[in-house]
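Quick one:
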Amino acid sequence: MNSRLFGLLGAALVGITSAGCKSDPTADLAGAGVRLATEFSYREVVVADSVRTFATVFDGLNSPVVAAITVRSLNTAVATVSTVSDDPLARQGFWVHGITYGTTKVVAEGGGFADTMDVAAFPAKIVVSGRDSVISGSTRQYTFAYFAADNTDITAQGIPVPSWRTNDANRGTTTQAGLLSGFDPGVVTLTAVSARGPGNDSVRSAKIVFVDPKPFQGTTNALISTPTDTVRFARAVGARRFNMDSSATATGLRATFKFVAIPTFIARRTADSLYVIVPPIGDTTTADLVITRADSGKTAEKVSYKSSTASLLDHQDPASDDPATATAITTNGDYYVVLHGTCTGGVFTNPGDDCDDFYAVTNTGATSDSMRVQLDWGGAADVDVLWCRNVACSSVTTGGGATASNPEISRVFIPAGATWYLWINLFDPAGTKSSFARIRLSGKGVAP
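Output:
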C-alpha cells in the first residue's frame, strides 16, 4: 500500500511541476507603448492664469511606460504650453497658460503616438458697474467688463455679452442690454451671467441696487398727525391716476410708513384721491410714507411724514378700555384700533399695557340683528374678537372669533333692544411693539 501511495504523490508532483512551466499569455503586452493619452480631453484655463496637467504613454496592459513626450499649442495666441517634470511618475507634466479669450487644441506626441486636448480660455470674472440706486418708475443703464486673473480688462477680446437678470421682478426688471427699471421700493439684485464651457459653469457678477420711491405726485392734507388719523392724498393734474387694484397681491396698491416697515390700511380710494389711516409710529422722527404700485406705471411714491406723538394710543383711548365708557358703533363700516403691551395670555401684565378695546353695539330694531365682524391686522401678533353680552362682561361669546387666524371672523345675533360690547383683545403680541387692526362691521340693521 505504501508503494501505491508514493506512486500517486509522485504523479501529482510531476503534474504540478509541468503546470508551473507554462508561459504568461500577457507578457508580450507589457513594456511596449501602444497609445498616448492626455489627462483630460478638455481643459479650461483663465486668461493670465495656468492649469497643470499631463500626458502618458501606456502599454498593452494599460500601465504607464517611460517615453519622451512633447506638447504644443495649435494657437499660441489663445494658450501656450510649457513642460514640467512629473518624476518619479512615468508621464510628462505640462502647464497650459491662458493668453486671450478663445479656444485651441494642445497636441501631445511621443513613442509614435499622439493625443489632442481641447482648451478654452475664459475671463476670471465679470464686473457690473453703475449707480447703487434707481428711482421707482425710471430706468438706469448698467455696464459690464471682463477681467483676467491679473485684473487686466479683457472686454475687448471678443467675449460674448452676458445675459442680465434680476432676483425680483416686482422690484426691478432688466433688458438684455443692462437697462434696469425700478418699481417696488427696496433692494433688487441685478446679475450679469456669462457662460463658461459646454456645461453649466459660468462667470457672474451681482450688483445690489436700491429702488427708491419718487416724490409723491400731488398734495396731502396732513403730514403731522396721531394714530388712526386719516391722511388724504390728492393726485396732481397731469399725473397718472391712482391704481384701483385693491388686491393683497403684488399688483395691488398699498401704503406703508417708515419706508416699508409699518404697513397700514387704505380707507378709501378714487382715481384722484387716496385716504390712508395713520398707524402707531411710536416716535416723532421722520417716517416716510410710501405708496407702492401707486399707478399704472407700477411706481412707488413717498412723502416725508412725522407723527405728532410717540404715544401708541388711538383716538378711542382710554375710554375704549372699559365697556362702561366704550365708544358706540352705530353703522356698518371700518373702524381702527391700536393695542400694545406685554399682555401675557391677553391679560394686563405691565404698567402701560393696552390689551383691550371695547365698542358698544346696540340693536335698535324690533327683531334680533345678525352682525358680522372681520378683524384684520399686520404682524405676527394674535388678536382676538369676543363679545360681552352685558356691560359687566359677565357673559361672553366669541361668535367664532378668538382663534389663531388672521383675519378673524365673528358672527353674532344681538337681541332686539340689547347692547353688546365688541371686545378686541391682544392675546399675544409675539414680540411686536403694537398691533394695528381694522374692524369691519357688516350686517347691522339687516334682518337675519
